């Protein structure tokens, strides 16, 4: 085997961030090479550089021994580099064939549909990727859309295929199918870069792993010769603390009770199926699961942002499933949404205005419809100090603060109001270690003060280190609810993958 | 202070560039730009009656501009203010001439409120609900509704139910009790100017100090976060478009009651379109709207004077207006020019 | 009513009135399919109408007038594209700016060049064309034959546009850019270039439409003579669901409304009510009465390439 791709000492700066900092990588012919790293470790930036979408500030790319100086994706494509983005680069209203050949249509001025379809059928035969060229992309399942993306790369004669978090949107079955395709491609001599932050998948499919942390590559290992603990340590950069210091579990009354809840998405497909669970005061209930298994729909239903199909949501023994969102807030429910910039904050509002985003109508902040800005500012200066929001000028627009401080605004608003129930979705996503520790400390403090907390996270470590009880959701169903102390990675992992029987075995 | 300077720097620069390009056009077509601008300035501000007429011209621009600015603040582009202005004018005219024997303190408010309600419904109901529930873009729907309003008023006036007896397509005069009196004799300046200024202060207060304004601005900046915060997003869209229409309608009514006293086909002079320009130049700040309306009003009155005294066609005002907006919208041009300038300097230094 | 409908003049007027709507509607289709909302077509038409007369008058040739109109119209379109695509300015606001500018600029030039008496009466016109055989068919011949050359050009352009947009590789790329520019870019397509192309084509078609108004239908220019046709064209394009044939169909319908209102000159009521119809129909099409009209996904959204 020889090196197909060499990345030497690549650095890429963005305003304020060193996204890639002296990155090195060697990908051999016919190997599946995993790039492992947390969110924000610089994986996507690196891939966009290899694919010609970004220009590196310094460093060198070599492909097939030749130095690459890419001015755009078209040149990367020409050299034989293909990429499947995490968010598919497809045009839903066009057909499969049109999507595949776009930008490299077979000959002539006119679009030659017959020729295009023929070429695609041939490729799909060669690589065992069945597809109907005339289907509209918008009518395909996520798994098939991904297949279109892969075909797109091979239509352009890719020798290197970059898969950016390809399993994030897939069901377990589709993931297995994808792995089958990947092995098959590998046997045909194709090299694959597989980007992931899921240890188990990396372990299962890759030949080599390169771990990235904070914009740097921290090591390349043979997958066979390593284990998940070692990879996790490399990824996080220190021994993973599996259990935070936590006071005794001392649950009180049931605060939130969900019974037989069923919720559908916009296409009327059931995303949450007959889900039941209780959360008591003084406990953190962690909801573990792979992205896209109904977490979003469940939380939106709990918050009144999405209608429910059937079932009961009780809060302090009162039915709330018909209450509008604002009424739920008024009852003492707080909510940290997943996307702080799109859902949690108004970026063009000041910090002070954002701090009252849910309470501006309460008598505390407004009288007869007029906002009492004196009180708003009092509140702001208090919260800015208490939650250490920097810079301390609360008249700044939220959009001018760093991500960590933006999250602190939300935290100040949602935790600072002493909620009886806090629903926190990925509260530490994209944060640095210091901010993560701060947020975890706050959540635990809230729990000790007697609040009930529903914590939704894709990071297993986070769930395991904080939760008193852990519910595992798979395909809209709560597979099991485990005791936080005795739950193991393996068991949760298997439940997340949908395997109840296997999980039971582990227990025995 | 520095903050204010920073926020008005771009609009002022746009005005200066537009004036320079205007000069070039005049030079090429054989006029003296200095003389032209001097006579434009005298026309707008040279005498007391001229100042009064400029202020009078500013009244409909201020009020309609406020309406457009409200929609912009809520993230919506009300391009159909012209039609809403017509609707307001129609209703005010009708109330103005059909009710007899009302005292002025009932007749005037009645006409104003009637116009506001009608225009608010016109601007809010169809485009508002269409946007809120089907996602139909308000630029297109308000524009289409605007044309419908204009043809509707032509229908009313040209042999329609509001036409005065005779052959001229115009409505009857409104009753004296509905007339907003003039401040300065032989000018068009009525007490409507106070309505305009009060409206600006009111809109400022509404948008920046009240719960309602807070919600409308929140929805304008980020609908998703507003929904997550428990706000009723569709309701706010409908309300802000209605409010936008209400002010356009008020403007039409004030113009009828204070200046025109009757409705005829060519009554608007495109105030509804200029109002968009007014709001844009003011960056949708209600107080800024007053000043930006004054600028365009001055261009309007001044250009008539310029045409008579310097023989420069008055349409030059429209040329300048278009250029101002072009440069306000394409504000990145400044950066491009800056970098070109820097490059040139460097080359000069190098050679 | 029956008499009016059986009058061939109504139908040839429909065709004549549909032409200056169909041309910019076609142009708008290209522009919006590439992702740029171009309401500046109104102003481009007006400017083209003026320069068509000016060049026709100066050169004595209507054809050179048309050519001049096209050149000026496309220059304005490219300036618009530069601000909208390269500088990512708000497309609707830019369009408004150009329309206000065009209205003032053409009126200003009309007064300074031709004075207050208007454009010269000896300005040449583009020819009308009689089609052999068809012209002898009663009724049909009166409608289909003897129209301005631009009318026939428009019909050719509609078929050509449909082929270009839906059956060529370049057309596929333009549609891709208007739906998902990021996806197009990752497929190696130059988004910016294609958006310039879309806008330039809208300038071309609008300019032909504008020239038709001043040297096709008439041989003179008057202030604001485009009278909102650029906007109605936008409506026709939406009503026609962003397709050349659909736009043409809508333009015919709107042209019919105009022609009918001209026939009903004396009963003012029905005339103005009929003139409202195109706008009401467009609103209905947008809110989804009778199959919702859905715009290209990235229509009106500026795009900044990643590099």
From TrEMBL, chain A:
It holds the Pfam family ABC_tran. InterPro entries: AAA+_ATPase, ABC_carbohydrate_import_ATPase, ABC_transporter-like_ATP-bd, ABC_transporter-like_CS, P-loop_NTPase. Signal peptide: none annotated. Residues 5-239, 256-500 form the ABC transporter domain. It comes from the Bacteria. The keyword Hydrolase does not apply. The keyword Nucleotide-binding applies. One of its GO terms (molecular function) is ATP binding. This is Simple sugar transport system ATP-binding protein. It comes from Thermoanaerobacterium butyriciformans. The lineage of its organism: Bacteria, Bacillati, Bacillota, Clostridia, Thermoanaerobacterales.
From TrEMBL, chain B:
It is found in: Cell membrane. This is Simple sugar transport system permease protein. It comes from Thermoanaerobacterium butyriciformans. It is a multi-pass membrane protein. The keyword Cell membrane applies. The keyword Disulfide bond does not apply. The chain crosses the membrane at residues 7-28, 34-52, 59-79, 110-130, 136-157, 189-207, 237-259, 271-299, 319-337. The lineage of its organism: Bacteria, Bacillati, Bacillota, Clostridia, Thermoanaerobacterales. Keywords: Cell membrane, Membrane, Sugar transport, Transmembrane, Transmembrane helix, Transport. PANTHER family: ABC TRANSPORTER, PERMEASE PROTEIN, GUANOSINE ABC TRANSPORTER PERMEASE PROTEIN NUPP. Pfam families: BPD_transp_2. InterPro entries: ABC_transp_permease (IPR001851).
Automatic annotation (TrEMBL), chain C:
The keyword Manganese does not apply. It holds the Pfam family BPD_transp_2. The chain crosses the membrane at residues 6-23, 35-56, 62-85, 92-116, 149-166, 196-218, 230-260, 272-291. CDD domains: TM_PBP1_transp_TpRbsC_like (cd06580). It is a multi-pass membrane protein. It is found in: Cell membrane. The keyword Membrane applies. Keywords: Cell membrane, Membrane, Sugar transport, Transmembrane, Transmembrane helix, Transport. This is Simple sugar transport system permease protein. It comes from Thermoanaerobacterium butyriciformans.
